[in-house]
Write a structure and sequence with these properties.
This protein is globular. Strands 1-2-5-6-3-4 form a six-stranded antiparallel sheet, with helices on both faces. 33% of the residues lie in helices and 25% in strands. By secondary structure, the protein is α+β, with helices and mostly antiparallel strands. It has five helices and six strands; from the N terminus they run H-H-H-H-E-E-E-E-H-E-E. It has one domain: Chitinase A, domain 3, CATH 3.10.50.40.
Amino acid sequence: MKKIVYRLLLALTVVAFTACSWDSEDKNPTHYDTVTDELKAIESEARASSGINLRWRELNEQLHDSIAKKALSNTVLDWHAVSTPGGTAGVYVRFIKSGTGSEKPVQTASVVINYKGKLGSETVFDQGVGAKFAVNGVVTGFSTALQNMVTGDKWEVCIPYGMGYGYTTSGSIPACSTLFFEIELLEIDQYPQ
């Protein structure tokens, strides 16, 4: 009897550890196969381009598509799709920390956030602490994420280039860039002056 109980406990332990192991994508959300490495390799070329670097665009599409597939699996650790009423789909989020607020900012609201923006190559292009923004004063994908958050939420957000800067280069952000943000919503002013 003791041998049966021991074997059963051993089997349950093995199953529990196997079920809890994460693949490399869960440990680092922007490392998908070799796409990130290739984006790093051609980033300077994409920045120097006066037009659209087709390989950069293709890799950014692959990166976003791989996250969209993860969102379809809809497990707790994976990406989840968010949109606004009548809005376009394509923004994916991972929940880092859940807030305690109950109200979500409307499009005309003003918010105070901590944020960090990265390219798919993991190059940080912008960051801020206690930054104040109008929800409708940022790229569409960023606004979509904000309108789904409550005070205290901290999310990782993936924005396809069509809901970011599109085919336009913006500062150090090459055209056709999938954008990643870590956003923490600190305050909401629904009726700014």
